[in-house]
Structure formats: C-alpha cells, structure tokens
Amino acid sequence: MGKFGIAVIVCFFFCIFAEASVVVTATGEHRYPWAPLDLDGDGQIEWILEGNLWNVYSADGQVTMVWDDKTLAVSIRLADIVQEQPSGWVNGYPEIWYGAKVWNTLGPALDGPVPLPQKLRDLRDISVTVEYEVRRLDPHLPYNLCLETWLTRDTERGRAVRSDEVEIMIWLDYQNMRGAGTLVGQTTVGGRVYDVWYEERCGNGGWEYFAFVPKDPAPYGTATIWWGPFIQEAMRYSCRSSWPDLYFTSIELGSEFGAPHYLRRNDLDWEVRSFVISCGQRNILGVETQ
C-alpha cells in the first residue's frame, strides 16, 4: 500500500494493491461478521469491514460486503425484519472503518496516517475524501450513507458509549430519513449547507449525539470532509465538558437503513471506489500546532 507525504499532508489509500477479494456476509443469525484488510501484506491492518446488523433480531436474506482491488461493494437484501430495539429506529450500519472503535475489540486498524485514539487537544485536523455511489433500488427505503466517529473519555474498548461521551455523524447521502433528536441549526462547511441535529441523551448509554445532514444529498460523487469544522460546530451546542480531553477513536463509513415501520423489505446497494485519509497542519479544534 502506498504512503506518501506532500508538505504537511499525508495520504492513505485503500483502493490499490489488492491481491484477493474479501467477502463479509451478515444475516439475522450472524449479525457481526468482520474481516481485516491488510492491503500491503505487512501484518498491519489498514481497514476493517464489519456487517454490524446491530438492531436485527431476525430476518431473511443477507448483507454482503465485497472488497476487491478496485471497490468496496455493499449489497443489502433483507426481508421480514424483526428489530431487537424498535427505539433504535434503524436496522444496522454495515461499514468500513479505521482506528480503534469503542464498541468492540476488533483490530485495531491503524496502518495509516493518523494514530488513534488521540485526544482532540493533540490531534491535527483529519480530512476524508470518499468517491462513492449509492443505488437507490427502493424509492421509499429510509437510508443514509455517512461518516461517523465516537469521542470518548478514555481508550477502553469493548464497551458501550457513556453519558459524558459524544457521537458525531456527517451524512453524504440519504432519503426518507432525518437525524435523531431535534433540528437545532444550520452550518456551512466547504460550501455545503448542513442541518444540525442534536440529541442530548441518545441510546441506552445516554451519550450526546450530533448529525450533520446536507441540504443537498448526493447519491454519487467525490466528497472531501475535514472533521475539524464539524467538531468545532458541535462544541457550540454541546452540554458536555472538557472537549479537548475527549479521544477521537475511529473513522467509520457506512449506511444506516430501515425503520420500525419499514421492515418487510430493505434493498440497497452502494460502492466506495476510493477512501483517502489525510492530516492537516492545524489542530482539529482550530488551534495552530508546531
């Protein structure tokens, strides 16, 4: 896998140097299959694929994730879904991720430019560039395609997120779905206008939740997202203290889909053709670093 530096930017690519396909298949009986991606054969993990049907108690069909030397292709074909927690709303979040995800002990996937977890006070701003395409097979299916991270108080893994911690989502595409909680404002980042959705206490753990939802969802294209402006905007609305001491743990890309009223059939396809992580010069909280 190629790693290179240009000025103060280091880039990390997942879409080249593949030697074989990797397939992950999730079902109602096997909800959390996963596979590590060691793209350059050095024994270190660049990415993790995870089926993550966290809210499916049972279902017919499957979710298939196929990575090859060009793309990650995700095919969702589920029917007659029974949710584990209807209050959780969506059925799952099949994803590819980098870092040290708090919810499990998989990986970690750290063969890249950003050492994670890392406190926000010590972290340079992170850019993610994604080339993707969503195929909307059902015009009525609620879904999104979004980036996500979890900001935690420590580096412990394999646990639920706690009430003094934070979830941040940045949506790329969606239909028939909105963020959780309440619409609290709008912000413009990189020329794109986002609604800001906020939930003070989300999930069983009561963590703080933010979703940045673009006014112009795009089912395909190339998007570059700098995390810093979104984190700084979330701080403006937050009820949690000591943000500089929160750990940025992971960079996740996946799709939430379905709803308590939409369980008979969930069909959706999406592809990721490149996924690039870069580090900038400024601190992610907007402070210059040396």
TrEMBL record:
<dbReference type="InterPro" id="IPR013319">
    <property type="entry name" value="GH11/12"/>
</dbReference>
<dbReference type="GO" id="GO:0008810">
    <property type="term" value="F:cellulase activity"/>
</dbReference>
<dbReference type="Pfam" id="PF01670">
    <property type="entry name" value="Glyco_hydro_12"/>
</dbReference>
<dbReference type="InterPro" id="IPR002594">
    <property type="entry name" value="GH12"/>
</dbReference>
<keyword id="KW-0326">Glycosidase</keyword>
<dbReference type="InterPro" id="IPR013320">
    <property type="entry name" value="ConA-like_dom_sf"/>
</dbReference>
<keyword id="KW-0624">Polysaccharide degradation</keyword>
<keyword id="KW-0732">Signal</keyword>
<feature type="signal peptide">
    <location>
        <begin position="1"/>
        <end position="20"/>
    </location>
</feature>
<keyword id="KW-0119">Carbohydrate metabolism</keyword>
<protein>
    <recommendedName>
        <fullName>Endoglucanase</fullName>
    </recommendedName>
</protein>
<comment type="similarity">
    <text>Belongs to the glycosyl hydrolase 12 (cellulase H) family.</text>
</comment>
<keyword id="KW-0378">Hydrolase</keyword>
<dbReference type="GO" id="GO:0000272">
    <property type="term" value="P:polysaccharide catabolic process"/>
</dbReference>
